[in-house]
Write a structure and sequence with these properties.
The protein is of the alpha+beta class. It has a domain of about 45 residues. Helix content is about 20%, strand content about 30%.
């Protein structure tokens, strides 16, 4: 999609990531000055990434309290802080989902599309499976 927007429509694409709890922006990806001299494919590879934390947002990846390296391969729990990042939920409600994942799946018209699924409390797992079936299998056929 990014290539089509850039090549066919001349749109400048900025890949960003965030969450509602961050109000909502957390990272943005633009080329650094030194990357503008790179070949086009190398630039596009950079632009497809999540980018860097925006000013005012600190992030780290941890596992069992130990900070992990930012090497593009290691994964763990993402901790985010900043002056506009929420510290909790109203009346302690919400935040009960243990994990939410999004994957790109092949789509016959758009090449790929997002597909979400949730691994929540045991009582909600059957509902998460129904969401998976409806969103991923029926709406985004492989």
């Amino acid at each position: 999609m990014m290539d089509t927007l850039i090549d066919r429509l001349g749109v400048q694409v900025v890949h960003a990531w965030g969450m509602t709890e961050m109000s909502p922006l957390g990272t943005a990806c633009t080329l650094l000055a030194k990357q503008t001299a790179m070949p086009q494919e190398a630039q596009r590879a950079v632009l497809r990434k999540q980018g860097h934390a925006i000013c005012g947002v600190d992030m780290k990846i941890v596992d069992d309290g130990t900070e992990l390296p930012w090497d593009g391969a290691t994964y763990g729990h993402l901790l985010v802080k900043g002056p506009w990042v929420v510290s909790g939920y109203f009346r302690g409600e919400g935040g009960d989902v243990l994990q939410a994942d999004c994957i790109g799946v092949q789509h016959p018209k758009w090449a790929s599309g997002p597909c979400w699924w949730w691994c929540a409390e045991p009582a909600w797992r059957s509902r998460a499976r129904i969401c998976w079936e409806w969103v991923c299998k029926e709406r985004l056929p492989l």
